[in-house]
Specification:
The protein has 4 helices and 6 strands, in the order αβββαββααβ. By secondary structure, the protein is an alpha+beta fold. A hairpin with a 6-residue loop joins β4 and β5.
Amino acid sequence: MVEITEHMATFLRANHAAIMVTVRADGTAHVARVSAGMVDGEIWSSGNQARVRTKHLRTNPHATLCFFSSRDRLWLGIEAMVTIHDGPDAPQKALALQRAIGREPEDVDAFLQNMAAQQRIIYEFEPLRVYGAALEGA
């Protein structure tokens, strides 16, 4: 596991747009645009039970995230092992993620009910390798 440095964490707290790459059964890549963020020092994103990426991760828990800045050309690639959190606390975890990326729901109770109805899950990324232009000069 690679430790997330303060420099990396600062970039991740400021940039929530990412591309998530999972691996299909035939070994080819599948990409999806996601929002992700830092929650209690961990990198999280969300999905639901029906997402293609969820199916891929249940077979092969390796994924790569590429975070990017909309203000400049900086980016950060993170190859990771992914743990899926899909228990009864998943809606609360989804709320924590929304707050971490600056998206406070107007109605928290309605948000939590919606997350449960959507079978929302959380992907937790354990970094194995980190690289990218955001690290230059760090």
